[in-house]
Write a structure and sequence with these properties.
It contains 12 helices and 12 strands. By secondary structure, the chain is of the alpha/beta class. A 6-stranded parallel beta sheet has the order 3-2-1-4-5-6, with helices on one face. A 6-stranded mixed beta sheet has the order 7-8-9-10-12-11, sandwiched between helices. 45% of the residues are buried. The structure holds guanosine-5'-monophosphate and manganese (II) ion.
């Protein structure tokens, strides 16, 4: 940690990046740390390859997140947050790998250890928890804007303090953030309170798509490009839907397949898919995701794959035999 802080304090222009198709932790971590480093008088660029989901657009300074970066030599340090591997950053990953110093800050058990320096804690409830510790160690006082992001990262990555990632720090830090002015009800209204009509309609299609393995231990939910088109929604709108598939009685592992765009369009047949995996805690889905080239945590993981939907579903259903 000290070494990382020395490099941050020595740098002129720092790039902060997190994984594409960001969740609450990925958005919050780059914002909180970006604001804190800004307090040190450093120039910062805050990057994410994907559009920021509507529910996180209330976060202070969210408009500072850019979708393109300049040449590698523009920056002297890159802070890569909430990414188990560097390609998770998306489009800019090749450029980032050429930035003189790449620092990997994460809480995924499957983290590959990429970069020149690492700050990885698989016991942290969220990357936001690690960011909180880093800000404290940098001696920056946390203002309401930073606190809002830290709190939102913890809230969303612990599934509102329900997932197995929920630890003592989740509550302790959240208490401190509320003392700094965060209003839990206001955050909850933004994050969980309102959905577009399209998202509700998409949920209906997603629920209807659920299939169960013969032994009842595995469920698959499928959201296709056609469903996004029909409801006027986007891949970010599937966030959270997998929990319905996981809550089904006797289900140990749930999979949510959602189609991604190949370039600008969805393709029929051979497509590009993201698969989210969740377990009831008794099965290590990070290992399953790893066998498909992805990663994550013991009870929440994922991977991307180019294949046909039919083959993907049958490969996933086969996993049920070992449950
Ligand atoms: P989600 O299913 O919500 O996209 O992701 C669940 C967890 O799995 C997150 O911690 C996320 O970082 C990880 N994950 C999801 N997709 C991928 C992937 O394609 N590669 C890797 N390494 N991790 C992933
Ligand atoms: Mn995270």
């Amino acid at each position: 940690m000290d070494k990382i802080i020395t490099h941050i304090k020595r740098a002129h222009h720092i790039l902060l990046a997190s994984h594409s198709e960001p969740d609450g932790d990925a958005v919050s971590s780059i914002l909180a740390l970006g604001l804190a480093i800004g307090q040190l008088g450093k120039k910062t660029t805050i990057y994410n390859a994907s559009p920021i989901p509507a529910v996180y657009r209330f976060l202070p300074s969210v408009e500072r997140i850019v979708r393109h970066i300049k040449k590698a030599n523009t920056y002297d340090v890159a802070l890569v947050l909430d990414c188990g591997d560097l390609p998770r950053v998306g489009e800019a990953s090749a450029t980032i790998s050429r930035i003189p110093l790449v620092i990997n800050i994460d809480h995924h058990i499957s983290n590959t250890g990429f970069g020149d320096l690492q700050l990885i804690d698989p016991l942290a409830c969220s990357t936001a928890e690690i960011v909180y510790r880093l800000i404290k160690a940098m001696d920056v006082s946390i203002d309401k804007a930073m606190a809002t992001s830290v709190y939102t990262g913890i809230l969303t990555d612990t599934g509102s303090f329900r997932f197995s990632s929920t630890n003592r720090a989740a509550f302790a830090i959240s208490q401190e953030m509320t003392e700094l002015g965060v209003e839990p009800h206001a955050v909850a209204q933004h994050v969980y309170g309102t959905y577009s009509l399209g998202r509700i309609k998409l949920l209906n299609l997603a629920l209807d798509s659920i299939e169960i393995s013969e032994n009842g231990k595995l469920s698959i939910m499928t959201v296709t490009g056609a469903m996004f088109a029909e409801t006027g929604t986007h891949p970010e709108d599937v966030d959270g839907m997998i929990n319905y598939a996981r809550r089904i009685e006797d289900v140990k592992v749930a999979a949510l397949i959602h189609e991604q765009k190949n370039g600008k369009t969805y393709s029929n047949g051979q497509g590009h898919y993201h698969v989210s995996l969740r377990s009831d805690g008794s099965v290590d889905v990070a290992a399953i995701a790893g066998s498909f080239g992805g990663g994550g945590h013991t009870s929440a993981a994922g991977f991307q794959i180019e294949t046909s939907l039919k083959k993907l579903k049958s490969d996933i259903i086969t996993l049920a035999q070992n449950l």
